[in-house]
What does this fold into?
Amino acid sequence: MSFGYITRRFRFCASHRYWVSDWSEERNQAVFGSRISKYGHGHNYTMDVTLKGEVNPVTGMVINLSEVKQIIGTVVNRFDHAFLNVDLPYFSKMQPTAENLSRIFWRLIEPGLPAGVFLHRVRLYTTESVFAEYFGDGAEAVFSKRFVFSATHRLHSDGLTDEKNREVYGKCNNEHGHGHNYEVIVSVKKPIDAVTGMTLPLKELERIVRDFLKTELQGKRLDMEVAYFRDKPATSENLIHFIRQGLEEKISAFLYRIKLKETNNNFFETGELFDEQ
It folds into this structure.
């Protein structure tokens, strides 16, 4: 069966609190940080719901978007302007994390879809830099965080003549180098912890990735200061593999996907395709 895919974006505002009643305040603080306030904290959530199905030969659609808006919008409306822990029954025994929210949305949306239309992915952003994805894989979810670092490089290959290097790399072959504010999205995939509601705690993911970026890449001239590029060009294709290699030492069992943004026009990926809408 050949499927077509469509994605519809929804937005809602809500607040929530992270707290494990069996833990001390100190342990809650260590795991959840400032998110333990009894008054909660809020987000402008963005949710992208991707559906799949065969394209109807008459309408030319997988499903009419007005129908999508009605089916899913009714579900989303229950969450809008709610204090999730208190106002919704789903979180009486479950942390209202992005991972659990995306799984709950899947559970609520799926039964309302018409025959022949299926859920492919629910992606929920808590901020522009933090999001979770659920693909219907039992307790497994994907959790992602966007990071930024600055570095310079020169694109040059010892396997090419100087003339050929200038032809292949153009301005990027400038011997003095040039720089970028790189953005890297690191995604992990693992079962959602029944207690914390998280795949990998945000604080832990931030610590691992930021330590790596700060130590290995931040503020460096890649082709001259990073040993990995002594025998290979400091292209973004090679850079993303260097990042993956470094992070695999820390989170190899869970590392799912890395996306590297060099400029607003150039993106590079390793692992599962990011498929950004």
